[in-house]
């Protein structure tokens, strides 16, 4: 079905913002927001995982930046936090089932969220990449092809 990307993101942010009092989810996108043909449920699942992680692994008061950029053929989502970061040695294993980085401390989780996200992204011929600096923050880049 056709969805308006900006409307979709704004309502997801509104929904996720309710789950946290202590973080700000800051959304930004380009001027035009195209209507695209994308799987709503899939997109919601992937973005919810990434934004929830950004919240969970950030200190109270942190800002989560969520950005949407797209052209005719591709949509790119950036989810960036100012949280605990991920040790470099752990970054290649993030998408493996049950993997948790060595610096999670008392933050609980099963280590399955990103493994499932990665499978969904692969199934839709997308890409997901991570850049992170320990103690500084993490940025996930999700790229999905648009089928016009
Ligand atoms: P859950 O299955 O409940 O999501 P989880 O959050 O531990 O548990 P994943 O979402 O798969 O599992 O993430 C895997 C690991 O990657 C996390 O345990 C954490 O070490 C690291 N991680 C993921 N996102 C971030 C982030 N934004 N900042 C820091 N570390 C992160
Ligand atoms: Mg998670």
UniProtKB/TrEMBL annotation:
It comes from Gloeocapsopsis dulcis AAB1 = 1H9. This is histidine kinase. Residues 1-148 form the Histidine kinase domain.
């Amino acid at each position: 079905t056709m969805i308006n990307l900006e409307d979709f993101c704004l309502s997801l942010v509104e929904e996720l913002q309710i789950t946290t009092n202590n973080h700000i989810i800051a959304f930004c996108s380009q001027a035009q927001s195209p209507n695209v043909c994308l799987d709503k449920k899939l997109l919601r699942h992937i973005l919810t995982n990434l934004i929830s992680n950004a919240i969970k692994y950030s200190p109270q008061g942190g800002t989560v930046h969520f950005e949407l950029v797209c052209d005719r053929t591709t949509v790119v989502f950036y989810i960036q936090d100012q949280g605990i970061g991920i040790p470099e040695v752990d970054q290649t294993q993030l998408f493996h089932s049950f993997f948790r980085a060595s610096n999670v401390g008392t933050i609980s989780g099963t280590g399955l969220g990103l493994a499932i996200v990665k499978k969904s992204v692969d199934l839709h011929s997308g890409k997901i990449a991570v850049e992170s600096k320990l103690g500084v923050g993490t940025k996930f880049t999700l790229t999905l092809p648009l089928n016009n």
